[in-house]
Design a protein that fits this description.
The complex is a heterodimer of chains A (315) and B (297).
Chain A lengths: L4 H7 L19 H29 L2 E2 L7 E2 L3 H5 L4 H32 L6 H13 L2 H12 L5 H8 L13 H29 L3 H9 L4 H29 L3 H6 L11 H10 L4 H31 L1
Antiparallel strand pairs in A: 1-2
Helix pairs in contact in A: 4-5, 4-8, 4-10, 4-12, 5-8, 6-8, 8-10, 10-13, 12-13
Chain B lengths: L15 H36 L3 H4 L14 H6 L6 H32 L5 H10 L5 H14 L6 H25 L4 H8 L4 H9 L4 H17 L2 H6 L8 H9 L8 H21 L1 H14 L1
Classes of the chains: A mainly alpha (315), B mainly alpha (297).
């Protein structure tokens, strides 16, 4: 597309300066119009984000049954967290889940990246395959797993039996450990594609000349990995680490669908505990206090991320 | 299969022994990768295969690996559960369309506003919008429930759509602002001189230039709202307003009678096929969005 220079020249003679001094342009000279364009955004952010955030902080200091009014409770809801068995269990379990998920996804993603970063024919197909589960909804993925591991006719039990590993259904969801294991397989399958794609993009951003120069200097594969690849990928790895941790801390769908937090409340995550406290026990104040704690943890992690990614610009 | 791969620093013409070695490595690579790819594809494939078995076969013990006969019975049964598949499908479509349209309109306007105008509170509003990223709605869903209740918007697809739109805003506003900033403003100014208002300049001149960004924002908001589970679970209490994922999960806990794995898998297939197709056709936009959102956001 081309511009119409004649009209422009007729309108404002000093046009050539515009590229350097955008503030002088005819558009930006009208601040009221700018406000009009961002008004819908401002309204939604104010009503559905800032107001609820304020309500959340207020709510966490109140005794607030779902059906009924609030009465002040000071910091009582926070003080009760350490003695609330459901919350303590949920915090412990969520931390264990987060650590395991992050280790598994990081370890396995390196293998998948090695496979899909190959220049061989077919590498692109493999890359697409690894990523497909990422667009499948977590609830749908959990339902596929639920059908596959059911005791009545689940295909996972069938295969284990046929291969001679078990005698009868293995009981994928029978104990806390088994339920966690089953959920971890689901989570790795569902989310790892994202990590693979982001790592691939990070790898492609490394200038090829560096590798060639290193090779001429006689650097080994390990040395190239150690001194070129890893330093360049550091910001990407830091980002993925934070995303994996924050994502795991907020896990809900997979547990709600697959384990229902069971057996015996052994797989209740923080969000599941918040959800149950608010909408099954109708105790909004306690649920809000736990939400604020989770929120602070997330803000802290994001602060760490900003700190880690600072180097990106320094380089 | 071509054996000649990139061999930097080496010769392109290989000796016989090297060729054999390279072919062996290639086979090993494809064996290993093929098994990995199969692991990633099998769960989806298995759900599809099960969904087209006759209902009795899909629920039989022991299970069959491949359908012995083809049937759409599972899909037909799904149509009769609860308020009927049609209702849930329509609810899911309505929710996703509302979210996509709302997100696109708000983020295009705001992106244009941020990229082209100076006004008081500009960086404050932009910063606050990005702050939403730090506060996933799982943590503010309870006050959101109260606020929506005061506005009379609980148990309404419209109210739920507003909530889901809000969580698409950081990504969308960020992407649209960058899109507008990357196109020259001279075009719009020419339009202004020609008598367009600022809105006309956006509508008739710039919008078509930022279309890739619009497609990316629409794609992300569609996939997110189509797959959304926690939101509908909390904000919709009337069974006839449930979306597809909620209905299927209710099916899996036996809300409509004995758990019918064949029907569940038919529902899963209906739920995942649209997003898989969208992804395969619009992969370019999806990956660019991921990279822009994740690496720069």
């Amino acid at each position: 597309m081309t511009t119409t220079p004649t009209v422009r020249d007729a309108g404002t003679p000093a046009r050539t300066l515009d590229r350097r001094t955008p503030r002088r342009s005819s558009l930006t000279a009208r601040p009221a119009v700018g406000l009009l364009f961002v008004a819908p955004l401002a309204i939604i952010v104010a009503i559905l984000f800032l107001v609820p955030l304020g309500v959340l902080l207020f709510m966490s200091t109140q005794n607030w049954p779902l059906l009924g009014g609030p009465t002040p409770n000071g910091l009582g809801n926070y003080a009760e967290i350490p003695s609330n068995a459901l919350f303590v269990g949920a915090i412990t379990f969520t931390l264990i889940y987060t650590i395991l998920t992050t280790i598994l996804i990081f370890g396995i993603s390196f293998v998948l990246v090695a496979v899909s970063n190959s220049s061989r024919r077919g590498a692109k197909f493999y890359r697409t395959t690894f990523f497909l589960p990422y667009v499948v909804g977590t609830a749908s993925a959990a339902l596929i797993w639920l059908a596959a591991v059911n005791d009545r006719n689940g295909v996972a039990n069938f295969l284990l039996e046929r291969l001679g590993f078990t005698d009868g259904p293995w009981g994928f969801l029978n104990t806390g450990g088994q339920a966690l294991f089953t959920t971890l397989t689901l989570v790795v399958w569902k989310f790892i594609g994202f990590q693979v794609i982001v790592l691939l993009v990070g790898l492609q951003a490394i200038p090829n000349e560096l590798y060639e120069a290193a090779r001429m200097d006689g650097a080994t594969t390990m040395q190239r990995l150690r001194y070129i690849t890893l330093p360049y990928l550091r910001p990407t790895l830091a980002l993925l680490l934070i995303l994996s941790i924050t994502g795991s801390l907020l896990a809900f769908d997979q547990f709600q669908v697959l384990t229902h937090g069971g057996p015996d409340n052994s797989t209740i995550t923080l969000v599941l505990a918040i959800y149950n406290t608010a909408f099954a026990q109708f105790d909004l104040g306690k649920a809000a206090a736990l939400s604020v704690v989770l929120l602070l943890a997330l803000v802290l992690l994001n602060g760490v991320q900003l700190f880690l990614l600072r180097d990106k610009d320094d380089r | 299969m071509t054996v000649i791969t990139r061999t930097p620093g080496g010769t392109r013409h290989k000796t016989g022994a090297a060729r054999v070695r390279s072919a062996a490595a290639g086979t090993g690579y494809h064996l290993f990768s093929g098994v990995l790819a199969a692991i990633f594809l099998l769960p989806i494939l298995w759900a599809v295969l099960n969904s087209v078995k006759p209902a009795a076969e899909a629920n039989s013990n022991p299970p069959t690996l491949f359908p012995h006969s083809f049937s759409l019975e599972n899909y037909q049964k799904l149509a009769t559960y609860g308020a009927g598949l049609g209702t849930y499908l329509w609810n899911s479509i309505a929710l996703s369309v509302l979210v996509v349209v709302g997100t696109v309109i708000i983020t295009v306007l705001a992106g244009y506003g941020f990229a082209r105008f100076q006004f008081r509170g500009k960086s404050l509003l932009f910063g606050t919008t990005l702050l939403i990223l730090m506060v996933p709605y799982a943590t503010i869903l309870i006050p959101l429930f109260i606020v929506l209740g005061r506005l009379g918007l609980t148990n309404s697809v419209f109210g739920l759509a507003l909530v889901l739109i809000m969580f698409q805003l950081p990504f969308g506003v960020f992407l649209m602002r960058n899109s507008f900033e990357s196109i020259p403003r001279e075009l719009e100014e020419a339009a202004l001189v020609d008598g367009c208002g600022p809105f006309g300049a956006l509508r008739y001149v710039s919008l078509r230039l930022v279309m890739p960004g619009v497609v990316t924002v629409a794609l992300f908001s569609f996939i997110a709202s189509w797959n959304e589970f926690l939101g509908p679970l909390i904000f919709l209490s009337d069974g006839s307003q449930y979306t597809l994922p909620i209905m299927l999960v209710n099916l899996s806990i036996g809300q409509y009678g004995a758990v019918d794995y064949g029907a569940i898998q038919a529902g899963v297939v209906i739920t995942i096929v649209p997003v898989l197709l969208l992804y395969l056709f619009l992969q370019r936009f999806y990956v660019s969005g991921l990279v822009n959102g994740a690496l720069r956001g």
